[in-house]
Design a protein that fits this description.
Layout lengths: L1 H4 L17 H5 L1 H17 L4 E4 L20 H6 L11 E4 H11 L1 H5 L17
């Protein structure tokens, strides 16, 4: 509802899976990257150029960009296992990366319909 009120249309990606941030990372390094990479492949197959994700860990990084600390063949290894390949062409933003500029500009406050006074905030650590 927040995004809709800000004029931002969101579309749920069919068959999106859990990123496995906790379970997969403790079990298998390849799986910990392949699970969120699968989501990038699904998004790419829809023709989207940008996605908004609930948590930063929900992706394997922007298209598994090559960096000095990452296996240079990792993207190829993961793509060999996926029906929808990752290309690295999708901009990935977290919810906060989208909302912070709206807060700073005052746009979010201007469109707020309910004051948050009296609420007790709680941390969100992911899908746990």
């Amino acid at each position: 509802m927040v995004f809709k009120n800000l004029g931002i249309e969101l579309k749920e990606i069919e068959d999106w899976n859990c990123c496995g941030a906790t379970a997969a990372a403790k079990t298998n390094d390849f799986l910990a990257v392949a699970l969120p990479a699968r989501n990038l492949g699904l998004a790419a197959a829809t023709g989207l150029s940008e996605i908004v994700i609930p948590a930063r860990r929900a992706t394997a990084g922007p298209g598994l960009a090559e960096d000095p600390g990452r296996d240079p063949g990792l993207r190829d290894s993961i793509n060999a296992e996926l029906s929808q390949k990752i290309t690295g062409d999708i901009k990935v933003s977290s919810i906060l990366e989208v909302l912070v500029p709206k807060v700073r500009s005052g746009e979010l406050a201007a469109k707020a319909t309910k004051k948050l006074e009296g609420l007790k905030p709680a941390c969100y650590y992911g899908c746990l």
